Every structure is written in structure tokens, then in C-alpha cells.
């Protein structure tokens, strides 16, 4: 089952470190079969006080996602993002195609 790395970032400082982070992140994803599904961009706010940018990266499974995040290559560039943004990051697994909302009840 696929796993998503989901981030909501705000107060991004678009300086040299973020540029370097953006230039290098794709190469860190490739060995773990990760790819962007959402990377910021325009959105339509329907409810609440959404702020920041949404980033969603898909991996084949949780093990690939964890291995990417903990990899030497990603850990090398992670400080560039951490020191130039505020944000939240999670890993979350997808559900089967036949999932129903009530499945979480039982």
C-alpha cells in the first residue's frame, strides 16, 4: 500500500539554502521510488484558515518513505529546509480502493 509524505510549510524564506534544497531533493527521492503528487501551487480554500503550501510525495510503501527520510542524502539537505521554513510533516498510508468511511468504526 502506498505511503504519502505530507508537509504543510509556511514562512518559507526563498534564499540560497531553499534553492539548493529544491535542486537536490529529486535525487534523494529516486532511489526510494518517491515522486511529487502536489508541490505547492494555487488552491481554492473552501473551509478554515488554511495557510502555507501543501507538499505530497508518494512512495510505494511506508518502508520506502522512512528509508528516504532517514537516508544520508536527505538528511544532508534537510537542515536547509528546517532553518528556512516552519512546517509540519507526516507519513500516512493510503487505504484500499474499496475503503468506506465507516471502515474506521470497526
Automatic annotation (TrEMBL):
Residues 3-94 form the DUF1330 domain. It comes from the Bacteria. It comes from Dictyobacter halimunensis. InterPro entries: Dimeric_a/b-barrel, DUF1330. This is DUF1330 domain-containing protein. SUPFAM superfamilies: Dimeric alpha+beta barrel.
Amino acid at each position: 500500500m502506498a505511503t504519502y509524505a505530507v508537509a504543510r510549510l509556511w514562512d518559507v524564506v526563498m534564499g540560497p539554502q531553499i534553492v539548493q534544497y529544491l535542486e537536490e531533493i529529486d535525487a534523494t527521492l529516486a532511489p526510494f521510488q518517491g515522486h511529487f503528487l502536489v508541490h505547492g501551487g494555487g488552491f481554492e480554500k473552501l473551509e478554515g484558515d488554511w495557510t502555507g503550501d501543501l507538499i505530497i510525495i508518494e512512495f510505494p510503501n511506508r518502508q520506502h518513505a522512512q528509508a528516504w527520510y532517514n537516508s544520508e542524502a536527505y538528511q544532508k539537505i534537510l537542515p536547509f529546509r528546517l532553518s528556512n521554513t516552519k512546517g509540519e510533516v507526516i507519513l500516512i498510508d493510503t487505504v484500499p480502493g474499496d475503503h468506506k468511511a465507516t471502515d474506521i468504526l470497526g
